[in-house]
Specification:
- The protein is an alpha/beta fold and 207 residues long.
- The protein has one domain: 3-Layer(aba) Sandwich (Rossmann fold).
- The protein has eight helices and six strands; from the N terminus they run αβαβαβααβααβαβ.
- It has a six-stranded parallel sheet, sandwiched between helices.
- Strand 2, helix 3 and strand 3 form a beta-alpha-beta unit.
- It starts with 7 loop residues before the first helix and ends in a 20-residue tail after the last strand.
Length: 207
């Protein structure tokens, strides 16, 4: 003799009981999370989406009326869709595109180092400026990987950032010390990419 299948009402009742238990458990956990402060966030990995995710955070912060500063350490004068959108918020957003392009484009190490240091000085000024609530250091990991900046100095500035300031660092190959210092780290993993199938970079997707 087989056990009768539960009725729809019984399934709904069990579901409601499980949901109530999950809600109670989550409320208990959330009750212990009382601290609110600025975070050091790192987006790294070989997958696409590191800068895209950072710009998404910028849009979210702008929606809350927060002032946002963005320094791009590598990307040069190539026009992007996000730049056009963010330009509509001049009172809240500062975007400084200070790179000369990727190293395989410039082929000039001294020039790349000089550009990285100019960008870092701008970034330091933003981090110290109390009017900013979020500062995004786009592709900082790239110039750190090539030792274009003094890593210990960069890490010291990030450690000493204002308590209520969010700082977002993007780029492949984040240094282990930076990962250890960060509050939130996301590694983008590439599973497939259309470039490998012969698809070029496209407006609205890559830029």
């Amino acid at each position: 003799m087989t056990e009768a299948e539960p009725s729809e009402d019984e399934i709904n009742r069990r579901h409601a009981e499980k949901a109530a238990k999950r809600k109670a458990a989550r409320a208990k956990i959330l009750a212990t999370k009382t601290e609110e402060r600025g975070l050091l966030i790192v987006h790294t990995g070989k997958g696409k989406g590191k800068s895209t995710a950072a710009f998404g955070l910028a849009m979210r912060a702008l929606g809350h009326g927060m002032r946002v500063g963005i320094v791009q350490f590598v990307k040069g004068a190539w026009p992007t869709g996000e730049e056009k959108v963010l330009a509509r918020f001049p009172e809240l957003l500062t975007l400084r595109r200070m790179g000369d392009g990727f190293t395989w484009d410039t082929q000039d190490r001294a020039r790349d180092i000089a550009a990285a240091n100019r960008a870092w000085e701008t970034a330091r000024a933003m981090i110290k400026d109390p009017s900013y609530r979020m500062v995004i250091l786009d592709e900082l990991n790239i110039v750190l990987r090539y030792n274009y900046l003094q890593f210990e100095e960069v890490l010291e500035v990030l450690r000493g950032k204002p308590r209520d300031l969010h700082v977002v660092v993007t780029g492949r190959n984040a240094r282990p010390e930076l990962i250890a210092q960060a509050d939130l780290v996301t590694e983008m993993t590439m599973i497939k990419h259309p470039f490998r199938s012969g698809v070029r970079a496209q407006a609205g997707i890559e830029f």
